Structures are given as C-alpha cells and as structure tokens.
C-alpha cells in the first residue's frame, strides 16, 4: 500500500531569523516497508527552540545539523499503521524523532512505546523532551534536595514549568521568571510556584532578592538575558547552575556579555551545560518517573497547539518572540 503525504524539507540555512524561504513543502509517497521496519502516521509534532541550532551549519555542536534537502528534524507522537517488526504491532502509539512529516518509516530505533491512556499532548508536554530535560537537569545534574531554593528562567516554558513542578514535588522553594504578568500568575496560581517575577520589570534585582531571602542553591538556565546577570549575587556557596538554553541570544547578532566570573570562584559554584541526546539511555526510567508525577496530580501542563503540518513554518517563531502559551506543538 502506498500513501501520498506531505513533508517539509530544510533547503536554506538561517542568517539570523527563521523565515519561510528556508523550507520547501513537498509531496512524497510511501514505499513498501522492509522486514524489521514500521510505518508511523505522525499525529502530534513538537516544536522546540533547539531546532534553530539544528538549522545552522555548526558541526561542532552536540548533534549534527539537518542537511539541506532533508526533512526538518523534530520529535513527535504517532501511530503504527504498518508493521514488520514484532516489537511494534499495528495500532501501537510511539514517540521519538520523526521530523516535519505526516508519515515516517523507522526500524524502531529511538522509538518508545506509549501507554494508551496518556494523551498525546501530555506525552509531548510531560513525558518527552521537556520532562526528560527537566528531570535530568534538576535531579541528575543539579542534585536538588528538599529545603533548597531554586530559580528558573523561562519558567512558563515547556521545560521550565516541568522543572518548577518537579522541584515543588521534591520539597524545594521554587521561584520562576517569565515575560508576562499572565504567565507569572499561571506559575503561582496554577502550578504552585512560591514566587514568579516578570523579567521585564524595572525592579527585577530587588524583586529577586525579596523572593529569595535565603539566597539561591540552584539556578536552572533556559534563557540567558537580564536574569542571568543578577543570579551570581544571589547564589549560595556550593550552588549549582544547570544550563540547557540561552533563547535570548538565539536570534541576536551578537550574544550578550556574560556576568563577572569572580563569584564563581568565591562561592565555589558548579555550572554545567547539558543536552538531552547525551541522556537518551535514561529516557525509559525518566518517563516512568514523570508518569508517576502526572498520575499523582503533581504535574500540570499547558499545550499551545497549531493545526496542520505547514503551520510549523511560521509557528516556530512563537518560541522566540514569547508568543506561545505552553508547550508548542503541531497537530497533524
């Protein structure tokens, strides 16, 4: 059985911003699958800030760039509609790297089977990359402990909101920053953060000090920008800083200057950057842990859903102008 479907290829590199001319919408046709393969119909596709880096020609990054002419890379959720792989029978729901495409052929490598009772939006918001990133950064790298205080930049984003809720579940005091008052209210009133601060505030430094009278033991960096420059003054001795994103600089011609490093020495701070491809082997156990939080009602999520594959072309920029309200994804 052959099926005609739509896919989107990357055909140009971005100069600064992501523009429609970087992509080509193409029609493709499925061919008969080989032994060991499965045909997946993608139903929900994730849009993430990391995609900007995947579009660039940087070959020294943690993952090779998407080659020009290839389908744009992304994670997603889908249903197995044909199978010659006994591990993935027809009707199975799976999550993994699928790309900007309606259908994809896979040998099952990197695909995780999903429990039927978990909605696809919950998978992408909680069990997939956001949850994996949050858990690895906070628990495995940050070694968070009950009674400590954490500040999270970009706290209303897909990763930040997960970090804060895991931290609350583990007994930490949680402070977040976000770009609008509405997002700050969501963090405190819906997710249970102890404090949330609009990073655009003219009194940002003072508000951070009030929110963290005992200083900060952990800082989860998603954005860079104004917040970062105040963090080092608030960090306690032997504090830990986990760096997984710098979205404030992704569309900047010249990255912002960083803070003075002297406090790193004086306070014996640990700063570690991390990316999730290094930790894919831990995905099953993290998915189980995140699923437990979800089932116990300790995790809430908010999805920002776009309709139709081609909505990704313009929609991805919502990640960089703050226009998304929740985990950004495309429903196919």
What does this structure look like?
The protein has 332 residues and is of the alpha/beta class. It has helices at residues 50-55, 120-127, 129-141, 158-169, 181-190, 204-211, 228-234, 247-250, 262-266, 283-295, 311-315, 318-321; strands at 4-10, 23-29, 38-46, 75-83, 93-97, 103-106, 112-113, 149-152, 173-178, 195-198, 216-221, 235-243, 270-273, 303-307, 327-331. The protein has 12 helices and 15 strands. Strands 3, 4, 5, 6, 7, 14 and 15 form a 7-stranded mixed sheet that branches. The chain is globular.
Secondary structure: elements and pairs:
Layout: E1 4-10, E2 23-29, E3 38-46, H1 50-55, E4 75-83, E5 93-97, E6 103-106, E7 112-113, H2 120-127, H3 129-141, E8 149-152, H4 158-169, E9 173-178, H5 181-190, E10 195-198, H6 204-211, E11 216-221, H7 228-234, E12 235-243, H8 247-250, H9 262-266, E13 270-273, H10 283-295, E14 303-307, H11 311-315, H12 318-321, E15 327-331
Parallel strand pairs: 8-9, 8-11, 9-10, 11-12, 12-13, 14-15
Antiparallel strand pairs: 1-2, 3-4, 3-6, 3-15, 4-5, 5-7
């Amino acid at each position: 059985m052959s099926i005609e479907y739509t896919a989107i290829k990357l055909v140009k590199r971005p100069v600064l911003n992501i523009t429609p001319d970087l992509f080509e919408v193409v029609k493709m046709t499925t061919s008969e699958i080989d032994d060991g393969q499965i045909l997946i119909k993608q139903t929900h596709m994730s849009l993430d800030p990391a995609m900007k880096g995947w579009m660039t020609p940087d070959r020294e990054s943690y993952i090779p760039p998407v080659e020009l002419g290839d389908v744009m890379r992304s994670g997603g959720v889908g249903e197995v509609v044909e199978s010659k792989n006994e591990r993935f029978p027809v009707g199975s729901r799976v999550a993994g790297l699928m790309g900007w495409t309606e259908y994809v052929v896979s040998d099952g490598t990197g695909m995780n089977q999903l429990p039927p009772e978990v909605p696809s939006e919950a998978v992408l918001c909680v069990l997939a990359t956001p949850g994996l990133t949050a858990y690895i950064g906070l628990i495995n790298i940050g070694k968070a402990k009950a009674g400590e205080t954490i500040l999270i930049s970009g706290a209303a984003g897909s990763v930040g909101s997960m970090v804060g809720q895991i931290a609350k579940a583990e007994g930490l005091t949680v402070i977040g920053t976000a770009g609008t008052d509405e997002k700050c209210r969501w963090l405190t009133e819906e997710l249970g953060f102890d404090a949330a601060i609009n990073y655009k505030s003219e009194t940002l430094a003072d508000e951070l000090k009030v929110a963290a009278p005992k200083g900060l033991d952990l800082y989860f960096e998603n954005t860079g920008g104004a917040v970062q420059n105040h963090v080092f003054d608030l960090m306690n001795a032997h504090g830990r800083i986990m760096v997984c994103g710098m979205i404030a600089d992704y569309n900047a011609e010249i990255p912002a200057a960083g803070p003075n490093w002297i406090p790193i020495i004086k306070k014996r701070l640990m700063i570690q950057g991390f990316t999730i491809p290094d930790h894919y082997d831990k995905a099953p156990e993290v998915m189980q842990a995140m699923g437990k939080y979800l089932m116990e009602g300790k995790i809430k999520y908010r999805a920002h859903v776009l309709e139709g594959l081609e909505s990704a072309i313009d929609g991805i920029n919502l990640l960089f102008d703050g226009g998304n309200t929740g985990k950004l994804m495309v429903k196919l």
